[in-house]
Amino acid sequence: MRYKCLIVDDEVELAQSTAEYFNLFDILTTYVTNYEDCITFFKDHSADVILLDINLADASGFNLCKRLRETIDVPILFVSARTSDDDILIALNIGGDDYITKPYTLSVLLAKVKAIIKRYSSALDQKEVEETCYTNGTLTINYQLGKVYLDGREVPFKAMEYRLLCYLIRNRGRIISKEELFREVWGDAITGDGTLNVHIRYLREKIEENPNEPSHIKTVWGRGYIYEE
């Protein structure tokens, strides 16, 4: 069975109430409360987005995220009461796509999840169907396959990284503000700068010859980013 959203949280009442709220708005949602139940869930089911708590009764959400990333490439949003920068960076470094702090407002969380589902409900958006590929020197993107190659070798990209790279390339030559990237890539206006900065760094590490002195993905201080050929 395919669900729109899976909540992984050992706070049973919170997980249950969030799932019930999402279901009221036709976002088919269920929840599990521990590591093993989450692994078991994906043997017979799927989900378009995962809301994952860090503190689980039987394990760490960080460990669960790394395990899921071995086989699953859907967006993972960490939801936690922990607010330290270290926790946020760890979450993004190991495969999380965003970080939401508790307590959260159900309506805001629902809006974020709906926006993400809209963008990931299909593997290709209309622009990707219209174009076959992009090539610039050693970098090639096959939009129909959703794959990135460097010097002919496939480079693995998480879903959010891929969306961000494609958006920068399709808008190459112009400065793109952070607000536009939050809105068009993440689907909301409340994604933090830290999330974007980490994803930009990942892109540079994967496609730039010298990530510390990028020749393609450049920062325009005070304005945003630009992709230059």
Structure description:
- GO terms for molecular function: phosphorelay response regulator activity; transcription cis-regulatory region binding.
- InterPro entries: CheY-like_superfamily, OmpR/PhoB-type_DNA-bd, Sig_transdc_resp-reg_receiver, WalR-like, WH-like_DNA-bd_sf.
- Keywords: DNA-binding, Phosphoprotein, Transcription, Transcription regulation.
- This is Stage 0 sporulation protein A homolog.
- It is a single chain.
- The protein is α/β, with parallel strands linked by helices.
- It has two domains: 2-124, Rossmann fold (3-Layer(aba) Sandwich), CATH 3.40.50; 133-227, Winged helix-like DNA-binding domain superfamily/Winged helix DNA-binding domain (Arc Repressor Mutant, subunit A, Orthogonal Bundle), CATH 1.10.10.10.
- It contains nine helices and eleven strands.
- It has helices spanning 12-24, 35-44, 61-68, 85-93, 106-120, 126-130, 159-170, 178-186, 193-207, and strands at residues 2-8, 29-32, 46-52, 76-80, 98-101, 133-136, 139-142, 147-150, 153-155, 217-220, 224-227.
- The termini are far apart.
- The mean pLDDT is 88.
Can you summarize this structure?
This protein is an alpha/beta fold. The chain has helices spanning 12-24, 35-44, 61-68, 85-93, 106-120, 126-130, 159-170, 178-186, 193-207, and strands at 2-8, 29-32, 46-52, 76-80, 98-101, 133-136, 139-142, 147-150, 153-155, 217-220, 224-227.
Question: Which features would summarize this protein structure in a list?
Answer:
229 residues; alpha/beta; Rossmann fold; Arc Repressor Mutant, subunit A; 2 domains; five-stranded parallel β-sheet; four-stranded antiparallel β-sheet; 9 helices
